[in-house]
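4.2 Preliminary Data

To establish feasibility before requesting continued support, the project team ran the inverse folding procedure on a target of 285 residues. The structure was first converted into the token representation described in Section 3, and no sequence information of any kind was made available to the design step. The complete token record follows.
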């Protein structure tokens, strides 16, 4: 299925791709769109949630375990190419680990940019997706992924920059993943109506990190066809999953019916498009 359409997405840790845009990736695979997932860190500082994993046993090889989990998730989502940049997890904002010598947060930005330029020039995506400038919710590795990606897109188009990293390529559209306030409010209201505890704790949706006003959203991708594969990918991230997590505990029919639209903010487009959009390739197809 050679549509010639290609999407590259840059994420900080294994599972970010599934949580932010898993259903979209599966849908794009159905449409014959080639997808390239670049994951910057090995995520070795993540909390281990799996009930059958023992922290002390798993911790020393968590990076390796998460690579395997991501490979399985990417297969479930029909991702065409998966690349690991292999940086070290920086830990949550403010943690001492942010300053560790090999933390992604401390990585040389020019080096990160050069490696992403190489990926962009090799894959030649029309569309790139990453996080907004706050990294979605302030995680240092997400912010670093954003920085590297926006710089790499600009550099990739210029023949004089990173000349050893391949032939220049100009990306047509850049998107940021987004969780709008209305989506969180809906989840909270549905849980309340069903007599369940608040899915994200007692915090008011307006106060939660990583939530954007609905006005920011430019693009809603209805990806119901990809919902079941998103669940499969989510379960593949075994170390990161407890079975009582709202996204796992919620029956698949409910997820598919109510939570299978992925949201994006169009940062810019070099092709004409009309907002609101329902397709990341609007103006490109
Ligand atoms: Zn992450």
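Position-by-position output of the design step:
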């Amino acid at each position: 299925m050679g549509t010639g359409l290609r999407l590259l997405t840059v994420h900080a840790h294994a599972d970010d791709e599934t949580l932010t845009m898993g259903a979209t990736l599966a849908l794009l695979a159905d449409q014959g769109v080639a997808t390239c997932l670049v994951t910057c860190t090995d995520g070795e500082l993540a909390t281990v949630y799996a009930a059958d994993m023992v922290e002390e046993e798993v911790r020393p090889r968590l990076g390796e375990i998460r690579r395997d989990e991501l490979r399985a998730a990417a297969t479930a989502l029909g991702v065409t190419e998966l690349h690991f940049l292999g940086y070290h997890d920086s830990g949550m904002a403010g943690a001492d680990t942010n300053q560790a010598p090999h933390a992604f947060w401390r990585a040389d930005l020019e080096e990160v940019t050069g490696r992403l330029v190489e990926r962009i020039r090799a894959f030649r995506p029309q569309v790139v997706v990453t996080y907004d400038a706050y990294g979605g919710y302030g995680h240092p590795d997400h912010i670093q992924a954003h920085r590297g990606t926006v710089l790499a897109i600009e550099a990739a188009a210029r023949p004089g920059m990173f000349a050893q990293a391949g032939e220049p390529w100009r990306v047509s559209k850049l998107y940021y993943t987004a969780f709008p306030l209305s989506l969180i409010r809906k989840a909270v209201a549905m849980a309340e109506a069903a007599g369940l505890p608040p899915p994200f704790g007692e915090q008011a949706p307006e106060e939660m990190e990583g939530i954007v006003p609905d006005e920011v959203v430019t693009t809603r991708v209805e990806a119901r066809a990809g919902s079941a594969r998103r669940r499969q990918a989510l379960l593949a991230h075994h170390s990161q999953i407890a079975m009582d997590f709202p996204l796992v505990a919620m029956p698949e029919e409910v997820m598919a019916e109510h939570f299978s639209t992925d949201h994006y903010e169009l940062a810019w487009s070099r092709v004409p498009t009309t907002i609101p959009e329902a397709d990341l390739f609007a103006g490109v197809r």
